[in-house]
Amino acid sequence: MKQSRVPSPPVSGVLFTCAGQRVDIVTAFKRAGATTLATDVNPLAPALYYADEHAFVPRVDDPGYVPALRSLVEAHGVELIVPLTDLDHGVLARARDELGALVLLPAPELVDALADKWLAHVLFVERGIGSPDTWLPDALPDDLLFPVLVKARHGFGSRGIYRCADRRELEFFLDYATEDSMVQACCAGEEFSIDLFCDLESRCLNAVPRTMIESKGGESIKGMTIRDADLIEVGRHVSETLGLVGPANVQCFREPDGTHLVTDINPRFGGAFPLPTAAGSRFPELALALAAGDRPEPTLGMFRDGLVMTRFFSELVLSAGTGGTLEPFAEELPDPVVE
């Protein structure tokens, strides 16, 4: 396989929001040449301590959240803002013009639709993208075929999803659910994930499909890259049809008749980020190139197939620092083993 050729951009300042546990993403951007600044509200978020600098910010629903980020952008010469969870997508998408740096997110309307599984389904159908049959609880057909899934409209990480074998279970879980829910037909085929990256014009620059060998809590912990032309085309078609910008993860099923049904799209780097990175996706380099004003050309299908990822727990030990802060106990932090 030829490696995708992305010009080495000048060093860029990158601010990561809601850094949490995403050590893999922060360190990958550092290796790509970025100066990294990680932010979070929680001082125990491990990714903070793997960045060149870190800062604590208000909660995403606090009126001071955006001003705090803007101050950090100005103080640290930040050119690129990369959200690492779904929590602040809507806030950042609407504040992009006042933040002073490129925000790797699509338009606010698309962010809102993808955050609501019912609105996402409606959007997919409107744009001609395959999606499983889906209903709101007060519009269920009398001849509903089981099994079906009850899904929280704003759920994430496989939370608020219940499989129902019959109408009795369906009624129970609709009553049991504490959030607004919808009902979706179960897919009969094999599930895949497609990690992709689009430029500011929503051109898909690369799409890396992977199998879903095992997931835990909605996050892939075992999977394999697969150079499947149909899945690559699904990633390209879906991202360009919707107008995605930056990273995204498309979850879909290949049904027995060969069609593909999209169930979720997350407009961020996926939980299995180390696997497409190891496969040569060069997503951090592409992001830095966009921040530098470059226009990389698409390299669809240029990645290593057959790479298998299996994940494990690691840890970071902190000790008390000056002024009540926490600092890494070791002088040098261990590099992530899998990248």
Fold and architecture overview:
This protein is an alpha+beta fold and about 350 residues long. The chain has 2 domains: about 15-115 and about 190-330, D-amino Acid Aminotransferase, Chain A, domain 1 (2-Layer Sandwich), CATH 3.30.470; about 145-185, no CATH class. It has helices at about 25-30, 65-75, 90-100, 110-115, 115-125, 165-175, 230-240, 275-280, 285-290; strands at about 15, 35-40, 55, 80-85, 100-105, 135, 150, 160-165, 180-185, 190-200, 205-210, 215, 220-225, 245-255, 260-265, 310, 320, 325-330. Strands 3-2-1-4-5 form a 5-stranded parallel beta sheet, with helices on both faces. α4 (about 110-115) packs across α5. It starts with 12 loop residues before the first strand and ends in an 11-residue tail after the last strand. About 40% of the residues are buried.
List the topology elements.
Layout: E1 13-17, H1 23-31, E2 35-40, E3 53-56, H2 65-76, E4 78-83, H3 89-99, E5 102-103, H4 108-115, H5 117-126, E6 134-135, E7 148-152, E8 161-164, H6 167-176, E9 181-185, E10 190-198, E11 204-211, E12 214-216, E13 219-224, H7 229-242, E14 246-254, E15 260-266, H8 274-278, H9 283-291, E16 308-310, E17 318-320, E18 326-328
Parallel strand pairs: 1-2, 1-4, 2-3, 4-5
Antiparallel strand pairs: 6-9, 7-8, 7-9, 10-11, 10-14, 12-13, 13-16, 14-15, 17-18
Helix pairs in contact: 2-3, 4-5
